[in-house]
Design brief:
about 35 residues; rod-shaped
Length: about 35
Amino acid sequence: MGEMFTATILCLTLIPVGIVLGFLLLKIQGGEESEL
């Protein structure tokens, strides 16, 4: 049961973090490309 709880916490935290990091990377790359 502890493993299931840990897995749920990891999913709930890593998924949004991954989305935010991916969005920031795309925004930074897009900004650099648009400026150039």
